[in-house]
Amino acid sequence: MSAVLATPKRSRTRAADHYLTFLMLVLLGYSLAGRGFAYIGAPPLFIGEVLLLSGLLVMLRTGGVFATVSSLPGTLLAILIVWVMARTLPFFGTYSFDALRDSVIVMYGLLAFVVIALLYDEPERLRRLVLAYGGFAVFFVTVMPIIYPLFQLLNAQIPTWPRYGVPFISLRPGEVGVHFAGVALFVLLGFRRLNPLQLAMLVFGMALVAAHSRGGMLAIVVPLAIALALVPRSRQLAPLLGIAGVTVIVALVLNLEIEVSSRKLSVDQLVTNAMSILGTTDTATLDGTKQWRIMWWDKIIGYTVQGDHFWDGKGFGINLADDDGFQVVDAEDGQVLRSPHNAHMTILARAGVPGFVLWAALLGSWSVFMMRAFLLARRNGDRAWARLFVFLFCYWLSIVINASFDVTLEGPMLGIWFWVLFGVGIAAGLIYRNELENRSPLPH
Questions:
Q1: Which distant-in-sequence residues (6+ apart) come within 8 Å of 170 by Cβ?
Q2: Is residue 444 part of a domain?
Q3: Would you say residue 191 lies in a domain?
Q4: Which of 50, 318, 361, 429 pairs as cysteine with 373 (C-beta 3.0–4.6 A)?
Q5: Is residue 443 part of a domain?
Q6: Which residue windows are transmembrane per the record (predicted)?
Q7: Which residues contact 22 (CB under 8 A, 6 or more apart)?
């Protein structure tokens, strides 16, 4: 009887492989069309929810389910998901699907479990993902420096989804910047070579983001600096820096300015954005939005850490911008805000101090897990593995940085990328340790 009911391994493998292809296509769609791609489907099952639910079904048919919580980050994620569910379900009757929508900042973490199970069940899938990202890197750096400025210039002419009024392509600078950072990391760490024209396109794309978004600038600069500190030898670093240097010199000599939406792409704009991160500028827009964020974050700390919502937060479902008195129309996509421009403050406001502590422990434990895997690989002379761990960590860190300045993890465009990288990192660490354990000892 059990033999009849058992699912053949070949069938399970085929389903998992098909799902992995589906996952990669969805990630590609989010990276190229952003919020416009997210509206494929019908409420409450948009493309992100279909990806999650189908992934959970496939995961249950693999042999890697127990690996999902075999690491400390995986265990902490499971606990955090339970806590968020406890702070979501009581509000479903009042806020309906808004409660579920707000909870995805953590609930998309279930995708991390799906990825861990699939890759641990068949480690060859990890290699397939890395190879696929190499193709994505070349494609993204070729088309996005064209798509992004065209979106900014022709936004009003782009067709929209009939029911929602959202353009088919809707890109935020931070989202684009994260993926430019990922491509740059992939190239500098030696996984893929780009020709001079592609390197120039990469420099141009990163400059576009840096001129448009301070968070996007940090999401590019900080991970690249960390990666180069951990793996200083890079054959493509000199060409990349050379192209960037020549570009800056030409822009200064010719005083070049490119109008992109409300910001100009120029050396002066890049310097102004950098200065606004470190201090104040004479630009009302930059200083004003910075002060607005700080005031809102201070209020959240006031009613959680120092106030009545210490243990429970305000829950998932309530519009925090309305309730906290900081409602504005988001300048990037014209939508009414629901959450502060900081994922960590969102967790604190909605899940209280216990939820925030779990969140901080989750981020910290995953970072330690990845750094330990990197150091282990470097100590054993496994350079490819070491570079892979640096790539995954810095790519993921780029999203964390962007999420500290924008509404990022609250949506699927980068939220799903974040949790997929989280899952790939854990799976890669577990697979590498298994590989070390299975290596034959050297003869004496």
A1: 33, 34, 35, 36, 151, 333
A2: no
A3: yes
A4: 429
A5: no
A6: 20-40, 103-120, 129-151, 171-191, 203-231, 237-256, 347-369, 384-402, 414-432
A7: 51, 54
